[in-house]
Write a structure and sequence with these properties.
This is Enamine deaminase RidA, house cleaning of reactive enamine intermediates, YjgF/YER057c/UK114 family. It contains 7 helices and 19 strands. It folds into 3 domains: about 160 residues, RutC-like (60s Ribosomal Protein L30, Chain: A, 2-Layer Sandwich), CATH 3.30.1330; about 100 residues, RutC-like (60s Ribosomal Protein L30, Chain: A, 2-Layer Sandwich), CATH 3.30.1330; about 100 residues, 60s Ribosomal Protein L30, Chain: A (2-Layer Sandwich). Helix 2 packs across helix 3 and helix 6 crosses helix 7. It is of the alpha+beta class.
């Protein structure tokens, strides 16, 4: 090899080394892992200013835990920090931690936090608190929704998803004696390693309590179709028109489970609008409640519709198919990606905000190793009819019509950011 060839070869080695270092540096900036091994949580675009990440990726080898919704209540049910937002945030996060302690986990295991606030201003205070709390590598994905909470003077509530909790062979619901609540009501539930199932919100007609009872029964009819039961449920999420009636609704839900521990429950008050009214079968306006479920699943070796390398998008035969979402999505054991609640630019119109959100989502999914074809559950919070309509139009063009994620879409008072009319959060599968 002559001197020119040696010089050129040395230059190539140097160039490759520099590019590798730059790539590693960018990777470290955009994505971090809790412990560097494959059975971990990865954090996509962690932000020290908010203490949160744009997305998190959870190894399919880790069991998950879903909590109920926690207010700033002490063990005796007294609201802490009646007129102090900071004290309420502190107490709520303490309650989340106490629930996770029951499954051998802590705040460092958090994957996703769903935050319910009385105003956009409270959301800003929560972000500041998170920045001071999540100062290490572990920074969960977070979403915000402005809604009336089921206790006077309550300003903030949260529920959580955590990974790397105690392993179980099947779902298990646990009650924490250190937290306020009726003994048979679950504060946290473990989803074992394996298949997970997401059911879109369902609704039955009737007055609020009749509709609640009918909807719970319908959802469990859907579970029976999948070969599942009440014992597989890890979380119940209910959207209702009046948060002051949460206690009544929760009692009806508990009646269904009878002697079994009641799974963790989350409530969101939705803002009524003509574009999302539900009608009873006789044409009279119903008092609606919409309820969705998250459960563990069972693989079927005989049913050829169960492809093990991708989610399965199904419809229970008794339910009507609607464009834009699937009724049921089953997810084989695989890594999952959770996005934060995403926003578009506040100066953009409704269509522009939705387009901004999906651009961000595409980037997050790409960094996670996923894409739109592997989304499994979406939650859409909107503050106006135009945003709802534009969302419906745009997602139909972006998503594969055979692979719509399960979803809940609700009109709410706000989404945690001023001058923004929609926020979207997603759960996706990372294909192998």
């Amino acid at each position: 090899m002559n001197s020119e060839h040696r010089l050129f070869a040395a230059f190539l080695v140097l160039l490759v080394t520099m590019l590798t270092a730059c790539t590693q540096k960018n990777s470290d900036t955009d994505e971090k892992s809790a412990d560097g091994n494959e059975e971990s949580i990865r954090y996509i675009e962690p932000n020290a200013a908010t203490g949160t990440s744009m997305g998190t990726v959870v190894s399919g080898k880790l069991p998950l835990a879903h909590t109920g919704q926690f207010l700033a209540l002490d063990k005796d049910g007294k609201l802490v920090g009646t007129d102090n937002t900071g004290q309420q945030i502190q107490q709520v996060l303490k309650n989340v931690r106490l629930a996770l302690t029951e499954v051998g986990a802590g705040l460092e295991n958090l994957v996703k936090l769903n935050v319910y606030v009385a105003s956009n201003e409270v959301a800003e205070q929560v972000r500041t608190y998170f920045a001071d709390t999540f100062t290490g590598e572990a920074k969960p994905a977070v979403s915000f929704v402005v809604t009336k909470l089921p206790r006077q003077k309550a300003l903030v509530a949260m529920d959580a998803v955590a990974a790397g909790v105690e392993a179980r062979d099947q779902s298990e619901v646990l009650h924490a004696d250190s937290l306020y609540g009726v003994p048979n009501r679950g504060h946290v539930a473990i989803l074992p390693v394996g298949e997970r199932v997401y059911l879109s919100g369902q609704v039955d007609p009737g007055d609020l309590l009749t509709a609640t009872r009918g909807t719970i029964e319908s959802l469990h009819g859907t579970l029976a179709y999948l070969g599942l039961s009440a014992e597989d449920v890890a979380q119940v999420k209910a959207y209702l028109p009046d948060a002051s009636r949460v206690d009544e609704v929760e009692k009806v839900i508990a009646e269904y489970y009878r002697e079994k521990p009641v799974p963790p429950v989350v409530f969101v008050e939705w803002s009524e609008g003509d574009y999302l009214r539900y009608l009873s079968t006789d044409g009279e306006k119903a008092t609606p409640i919409e309820i969705s479920l998250i459960t563990s699943g069972k693989a079927s070796t005989e049913d050829t519709t169960y492809a093990r390398d991708s989610p399965n998008y199904l419809t229970y035969p008794g339910l009507t198919d609607y464009p834009g979402y699937s009724r049921i999505v089953t997810v084989p054991q695989a890594d999952l990606v959770y996005t934060s609640g995403l926003y578009g630019g506040p100066s953009r119109d409704a269509a522009g905000q939705v387009q901004d959100i999906f651009r961000k989502m595409k980037d997050i999914l790409k960094k996670a190793g996923s894409d739109f074809d592997h989304l499994v559950k979406g939650t859409y919070y909107v503050t106006g009819e135009e945003s709802s309509d534009k969302l419906g139009d745009i997602r139909k063009d972006l998503f594969n019509p055979d692979r719509f994620p399960a979803s809940d879409k609700m009109p709410v008072r706000g989404v945690g950011e001023k001058e923004v009319t929609i926020t979207i959060e997603m759960v996706g599968m990372v294909p192998k």
